[in-house]
Design a protein that fits this description.
Number of strands: 0
Shape: globular
Strand content: under 5%
Structural class: mainly alpha
Order of helices and strands: HHHHHH
Radius of gyration: 15 Å
């Protein structure tokens, strides 16, 4: 008999499909370059389900969210990266872009 925890582990195992996080990140980056942000988001999330602290997957996820117009989610993702890597120049630049977008579209919560 399967428990909820057992089903959860099975789902996580299937998400990774036996791939390593680097392979998933590379696939996600290729999808992002093709303009397939929603598909890239899925692959970045798959990589993070295997290796939750992988910075390049976190950053890629934030960019994929931003590309889809999910500004609040993207902001939260960039903010999490910044907390763990406060001097990362790319994160600071991305937050500036998001701030501009927030002002442009009248977002009040950031």
């Amino acid at each position: 008999r399967l428990t909820a925890v057992g089903v959860g582990w099975m789902i996580l195992a299937l998400l990774g499909c036996g791939k390593d996080p680097q392979t998933l990140v590379e696939k996600a980056q290729a999808l992002a370059k093709e303009g397939k942000a929603a598909d890239a988001e899925i692959e970045f999330r798959n990589a993070l389900s295997i290796e939750p602290n992988r910075k390049e997957a976190k950053f890629g996820l934030a960019q994929a969210l931003e590309a889809q117009g999910k500004i609040t989610e993207a902001w939260d993702s960039y903010e999490e990266i910044e907390r763990t890597n406060p001097n990362d120049k790319a994160v600071l630049e991305a937050r500036l872009r998001l701030g501009y977008t927030a002002l442009r579209y009248g977002r009040s919560r950031m």
